[in-house]
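pls ignore typos typing on phone
phosphoenolpyruvate + seq
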Amino acid sequence: MELNRLFSDDIMSRRPLVLAGPCSAESEAQVLEAARALAAAGVKIFRAGVWKPRTKPGGFEGIGSPALSWLAKVKAETGMLIATEVANERHTREALDAGVDVLWIGARTSANPFAVQEIADVLAALPQERRDSLAVLVKNPVNPDLELWIGAMERINGAGIRRIGAIHRGFSAYGKHIYRNPPKWRIPIELHRRIPELPIICDPSHIGGKRELIASLSQQALDMNFDGLIVECHCHPDSALSDSAQQITPDVLAYILETLVIPSEASSTESLGLLRKQIDRLDDDLLELLAKRMRVARDIGRYKKEHNMPVLQPGRYNDLMQKRVDAAVQLDLNADFIKNVLASIHEESVRQQLELQ
Ligand code: PEP
Ligand code: MN
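k done
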């Protein structure tokens, strides 16, 4: 991808870069009250949803077009950049006509290449100057599919937009979890490895789904070197018309921003170098052990073949898994983590044994 700096130097030089504002624009008074408080807290980019993709019909689906003029007022009065979500051609045209500076593509939309292309086609037809100044943020798709996320950004980039950022908002999961959308940090970390120059902004509000989780998720994101945060803020969160449980007041946001510890570049000191060398050595040991284990698995595979035994013996697998997980927990390892590692090692052993059949 061909990328330019996401925002002006003045905004980018702040760590973290912060976008904040209500989940939804509900009324002119609510929007302006939040915007004034956030501007006073030093926030430079104001977010508010105008069209809200709701999972079920009957929820608050946003005010729609009339709310765009409230955002324009925020910009005129506070000087903040204004950001909103677009999901189709009409939203994109209307937001651009209203002078929106930052468009974001929501998680349900980035999962849909037709919709993303429709938006990209509107952007491609803009005058060069507008394309140069417009920033587009692409949320991860609801499903944990890195290629789909990158593909959505490539479509926007293909329309000549150079100011692109990714928003990590976690991934849908079935059942009850601590997080509304479990973060699966491995995916944004892999995104950074693939496209190091792409800024990544964490959305602790949609990951956590609860106010109490915003501070710790924000700190985790900074510890992992994310470039910024997008946080849902409402002056009266309990009466918010959407996502009320996860919105915080501008005062709470200001407090969180003050208490966040910003990891400094200078922490790459000698001792960090030594620790990294240790990790490199341990990883080498792990690889060797895994290779050894696979060799033994193949020997077992040959034995099973000679004796006409099936490759998969579920009784043995369940037994082995439980014993290993118990042992791992004794070593202070996380049970779910170990289950994933063992399941993946077992899957590879089975694949290799099947190859011998
Ligand atoms: C939002 O940011 O308000 C939103 C709808 O988020 P997501 O697309 O991540 O669900
Ligand atoms: Mn929301």
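The chain has a mean pLDDT of 94. The pocket of phosphoenolpyruvate (ligand 1) is lined by residues 23, 49, 53, 85, 106-107, 139, 169, 206 (CB under 6 Å). more later
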